[in-house]
Design goal:
Strand order of the largest sheet: 1-2
Number of helices: 6
Radius of gyration: 17 Å
Distance between the termini: 17 Å
Helix content: 40-55%
Strand content: 5-15%
Number of domains: 1
């Protein structure tokens, strides 16, 4: 699927923004589909950060951004959030999904937080992810025009392939 997206981007220049992020999403999907333990891979990795929107988030400085985005799991997860926010144009669906993610982060993810009191890698990863999710969710719910229930819209061209909807600009 990623190769098809790259082909489409080459053929129709500029249609799929940030197509290299699809590899991160694919890797995360494969890891979760095969029940890989992702929490034990929170140490620094080798990825080079390229998700620029994170620099706009209050409370995430350059060193935290570089440190956390160098971790493959965190980079892949933030890439997934970024691409989802960018390509999903049904505002009600987008808002509901980010609300569910935020409720998970604020609820279940901290249910037994005392288990991780001494693990700085997990604590700082949680703080980083929470800030990213809060930032994106805030953008999703605050971009509505006054008096409208729908949020921002992006003109998208839909391609249906193998039962999967891929939204590209």
């Amino acid at each position: 699927m990623v190769k098809l997206c790259e082909y489409y981007t080459e053929r129709y220049s500029g249609c799929l923004k940030d197509s290299e992020l699809l590899y991160s999403i694919r890797d995360l999907r494969n890891a979760t589909a095969h029940s890989n333990c992702l929490i034990n891979k929170l140490q620094k990795g080798t990825n080079k950060p390229s998700i620029k929107f994170v620099s706009n988030i209050d409370g995430i400085g350059a060193s935290m951004r570089k440190s956390k985005l160098s971790n493959k799991f965190l980079y892949d997860f933030v890439s997934l959030l970024y691409v989802y926010n960018l390509f999903i144009n049904v505002d009600v669906v987008k808002e509901k999904r980010f609300k569910q993610i935020q409720e998970f982060i604020d609820g279940r993810a901290v249910k037994n937080k005392e288990y991780f009191d001494k693990n700085e890698s997990i604590k700082t990863a949680y703080t980083f992810v929470k800030k990213v999710i809060d930032y994106i969710y805030g953008q999703v719910i605050h971009c509505r025009p006054p008096g409208h229930s729908a949020g921002c819209t992006v003109s998208n061209q839909c391609i249906r392939l193998a039962g999967t909807m891929l939204l590209v600009r």
